[in-house]
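Supplementary Methods S3. Complex input for the YCF-bound model.
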Amino acid sequence: QSSLPTALQDKYVLTRRIGTGVCGEVRLAFERSTCRKLAVKIINKKNFQSEGTATRNAETEIQILQRVDHPCLIKTEDFYQTEDSYYIVLELMEGGELFHRVKSQQQLNEGVAKLYFYQMLCAVQYLHRNGIIHRDLKPENILLSSNEDTCLIKVTDFNQSRILEEAALMRTLCGTPSYLAPEVFTHASTTGYGLAVDAWSLGVLLFVCLSGYAPFHESFSENSVKEQIIRGEFTMVPSKWRRVSNQAKDVVRKLLVVDPTQRMSVDEALQHPWLQDQQMLQTARSLMYPEGEDALPAAAPSDAPVAASMEVESSTGE
Ligand SMILES: C/C(=N\NC(=N)NO)c1ccc(NC(=O)Nc2ccc(/C(C)=N/N/C(N)=N/O)cc2)cc1
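Predicted complex, serialized as structure tokens:
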């Protein structure tokens, strides 16, 4: 409770640390007026990044957090800052970080991995459609809404995120082109390769969910992890991948492509056969848009048996 802003303390009680990050920690908090449980991310300004970068990143992150609105993106309630820290008050994701879920279960069963991965794709597609690159997608930044396998996931931590400034590119193109590099004109420099970095990270995330281990690791080859990544040299250990379907492996292989212009995009991944799974899509939709059910006319009791039998059918249809 050292130099916590008094305004923050007036509204919330901060208790134990529930998460740690490179540039800060996450504390469990209670809103005094409602006793609601919340999470508070505390970001130290004087962390490894230079003063300027940390401040600029935090400003961008706060702008993004206030602007985005998607069921699979973390919702924030409040912001505070002192001269040495930022405080972001956000909804508490009771299931904690995906990182710990995968670690405790060794590897996720394929159906669960597909449900989580689909939601991640929806969240990142929304960001990309709004010209935002996340740039730091990893299991610590994917939060789970409950301790159930079937749960909502939310993407968090926009500290490394960038807003694609199309306007900046337009200004550049108005100037004299004679000194501009070719990639400034090609797709690569605008929405193209920039967004593709998130597709790569989603490939690593899916690899970890399906197998329980990281695709690029110093123990897999005499090459450094950086070398392995640059070469796209990943290893699918047979014992870990035996029960994983070929379609799931195909998604991973098409995302972990070194050339960003050849890499499958988030939009293309959403069209991949592995994700055309009606039962999973139905479950995801009911998690993401629960009010959607209320919008439907309440099924008359006579309809119930049909729905039940359809349920049985779809579960065997898997
Ligand atoms: C329920 C629970 N734990 N439950 C428990 N321990 N028993 O009860 C729990 C819940 C949530 C979390 N994590 C969590 O919430 N992370 C998180 C990480 C980053 C950010 C942000 C915005 N980052 N922005 C920046 N700039 N970062 O550097 C926000 C949240 C961990 C454990």
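DSSP finds 14 helices and ten strands in the chain. The longest helix spans residues 191-211.
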